[in-house]
Write a structure and sequence with these properties.
The chain is α+β, with helices and mostly antiparallel strands. The protein is built from five helices and three strands; from the N terminus they run H-H-E-H-H-E-E-H. It is globular.
Length: about 100
């Protein structure tokens, strides 16, 4: 008789595991944390993010693409300018709580 492997109710499927690990990967990079923290205040264009954080435009664009692929940020177009804002309230709250936790000495 073949043994059946029953899934535990809180076992995670492969897709969920991948998405969770990618979210933590996104939050493990200091530049992405700085960008998300800035976007938590209000939406910004790539130029505004680059100027505010003293980063190259290409660096900001690369990081925003990574964050957009994970649906952590979204954008709207106004003319030729893209304005980015955060998309995932849960992740942003987790980031905010982690920042607050880390600032308590």
């Amino acid at each position: 008789m073949e043994e059946q492997h029953s899934r535990h109710p809180y076992d995670l499927d492969e897709e969920t595991l991948f998405l969770v690990s990618q979210t933590f990967k996104a939050l493990s990079d200091p530049t992405r944390i700085r960008i998300l923290n800035l976007l938590f205040q209000r939406e910004h264009s790539v130029n505004e993010i680059a100027e505010s954080l003293d980063l190259r435009q290409s660096t900001v664009s690369h990081q925003l693409r990574f964050l957009k692929n994970l649906r952590l940020v979204k954008y709207r177009r106004e003319g030729t300018t893209l304005y980015y804002s955060y998309e995932d309230e849960h992740v942003m709250n987790m980031l905010k709580q982690t920042i607050e936790h880390s600032s308590h000495s």
